[in-house]
Amino acid sequence: MSTVKDSRTIVLFDVDGTLTKPRNRVTTKVLAVLRALLQVVAVGFIGGSRIGLIEEQLGAEILKEVDYVFAENGLKTFQHGELLASTSLLEAVGEAKLQEFINFCLHYIADLKIPQKRGTFIEFRTGMLNISPIGRNCSQAERDEFEAYDKEHHIREQMIEHLRERFKHLNFVYSIGGQISFDVMPQGWTKEYALRFLPEKEYSRIVFIGDKCFEGGNDWEIFSHPRVEGYAVQNPGETIVVLRKLFPQIETLLDPAVLAA
């Protein structure tokens, strides 16, 4: 029996913690479910990372197959694998203000006493700064250790509070994502930014699935947006469960052995 695609519905997915384990490759099971879903509705990925990192996790082929990829929260937007739009944090804020902010962050991190510090504490992206107290060069084991330490000592939350107070004039927003870092960007440049590419006349239903859907998490703004039907998950397995409930049509498009894996 053929399936009619509902092109006015789009499902948007966070990447880390939703489609993959943090910074890990996508599984063949998740890819199979995504390809089945693509026969039913439109699909998009939305992540805070650069397009290269999203490609590493999900693979180049699926990025060309889906309708949209919103890298860096949509500040680099791709439609069917082609760059659609791009904007820059540097253009919006200016070098002088960015340097003032970055210098403060580096001094703050230098004074932190945490179990480990590695390298790449600040990653400059097209539309945001990604700040990691431990440094993005840490190993996976060190990521896991820092995540547990941060849950107890609230290192990222405390740093964000200092930055909010010191740089009120910059009107930045801060969101915690992943295991080791948080994002900093101008007001309105969180994941809800991507919605401007999905006009209501084209998409009457927008579903979002993410793992950081609490207030302060990097999925919160799009999860709670009035246009969006949001679902919070904790891992890729829960994402598949949600999809099977929302779109039971995918069951007939999948090998039962794939779902049982």
Automatic annotation (TrEMBL):
Its EC number is 5.4.2.8. The active site is at residues 14, 16. It is found in: Cytoplasm. One of its GO terms (molecular function) is metal ion binding. It is an enzyme of class 5 (isomerase). Its cofactor is Mg(2+). The keyword Chaperone does not apply. CDD domains: HAD_PMM (cd02585). SUPFAM superfamilies: HAD-like. Mg(2+) binds at residues 14, 16, 211, 223. The keyword Phosphoprotein does not apply. It catalyses: alpha-D-mannose 1-phosphate = D-mannose 6-phosphate. One of its GO terms (biological process) is mannose metabolic process. Involved in the synthesis of the GDP-mannose and dolichol-phosphate-mannose required for a number of critical mannosyl transfer reactions. This is Phosphomannomutase. The lineage of its organism: Eukaryota, Rhodophyta, Bangiophyceae, Cyanidiales, Cyanidiaceae.
